[in-house]
């Protein structure tokens, strides 16, 4: 898989370089929007992962004091982060919807990252036959002892 990631990164880098040669603002904006959208999608995933980790940890009767760090705002922190990222993601180009006529090119350029993400994610799940793990079925490593206790 590292070779595939390297080739994909090289292809995107080459595409970015080519936009500077041909002075294509449209391609540059599409690439910019795609990279920005993936950042918000990553933060949405982090919020979901944090929420599910803590819920699964507690569902198995584990002690939160064994964790090296505990978020003081759980469960509100990840829920707030998810809602905020979702609002920013969906509202990135609200101007395309304001005048009563939808600017489909602007909408596509802004939100192109969402269908690409869904295609890759659902494709991965189909190929690997992965599924969501129930809280009770999650596995956690035993917490490491602090260096002073060793």
From TrEMBL:
The gene is lysP_2. Pfam families: AA_permease. One of its GO terms (molecular function) is amino acid transmembrane transporter activity. Gene3D superfamilies: Amino acid/polyamine transporter I (1.20.1740.10). Its main location: membrane. It is a multi-pass membrane protein. It comes from Cupriavidus yeoncheonensis. It comes from the Bacteria. GO terms for cellular component: membrane. This is Lysine-specific permease. It is found in: Membrane. Keywords: Amino-acid transport, Membrane, Transmembrane, Transmembrane helix, Transport. The chain crosses the membrane at residues 28-53, 73-92, 104-124. InterPro entries: AA-permease/SLC12A_dom, APC_YAT. Residues 2-133 form the Amino acid permease/ SLC12A domain. PANTHER family: AMINO ACID PERMEASE, GENERAL AMINO-ACID PERMEASE GAP1.
């Amino acid at each position: 898989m590292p070779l595939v990631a390297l080739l994909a990164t090289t292809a995107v880098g080459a595409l970015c370089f080519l936009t500077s040669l041909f002075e294509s603002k449209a391609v540059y904006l599409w690439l910019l929007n795609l990279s920005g959208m993936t950042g918000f999608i990553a933060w949405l995933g982090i919020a979901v992962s944090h929420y599910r980790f803590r819920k699964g940890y507690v569902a198995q009767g584990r002690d939160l004091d064994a964790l090296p760090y505990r978020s003081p705002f759980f469960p509100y922190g990840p829920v707030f982060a998810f809602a905020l990222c979702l609002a920013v993601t969906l509202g990135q180009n609200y101007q395309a919807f304001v005048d009563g006529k939808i600017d489909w090119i602007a909408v596509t350029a802004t939100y192109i990252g969402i269908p690409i993400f869904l295609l890759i994610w659902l494709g991965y799940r189909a190929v690997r036959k992965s599924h969501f793990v129930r809280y009770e079925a999650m596995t956690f490593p035993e917490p490491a002892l602090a260096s002073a206790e060793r």
